[in-house]
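Fold this sequence, please.
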Amino acid sequence: MRVGLLSLTVLLLLATAAAKDKEKRPALPADVPRAHSVMVVIAPDAGEPLNDPQANAKAQEEVEKAFMKWQRFEVVSEPSIADLIVTVRRGTGKAVSPTIKGGPIDQRPVILQPTDGSIRIGGHTGHPTDVSGQDPIDAHPHAGTEYGPAEDTMEIYRCKRTVSEALDGIPVWRYTAKDSLKPPKLTAVEQFRKALDESDKAEASKNKQP
């Protein structure tokens, strides 16, 4: 009886773990695997941790490099030619934490990123907020408080005419986990790749059916 109860407990734990993993990697809409280009931006509500003011900018660049190395999508710097918008936000390890926002720290300089023979040039701002109607305080660095997940977060949105309009919608995919945007592993990107692989296999299986 004890062996039976132990086996049942193990099965329940495995089922719970599988359910949690499935919850982290929801099925993708049919149009997402057909996308050809992505634009990677810092989530508009993300502040820079006081102990690492470039954390989100680093995550943005590392995710871009990962997508370039993947070679499934073209990485672009304008929403008008992007099929998907990818937002990144580094967690601080706390649900509420002091941060730095605004000013040059949120601006992205022109960069040159070589990766496996490919080169991407970009010069857009890190945070995808529209200049019009922006609070003047955001033009200068200032202390702020961030409320949100303590872990790293990556979200995928369908692109619209502007980044702000795209982010007003509902993300088609989301992954949140500790250090999931930290190189060299970049777990969030790997999980998105797995989700796409599963979608590709499901589509291929569907097409084989008579």
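Residues 32-201 form one domain. The chain has one domain: 32-201.
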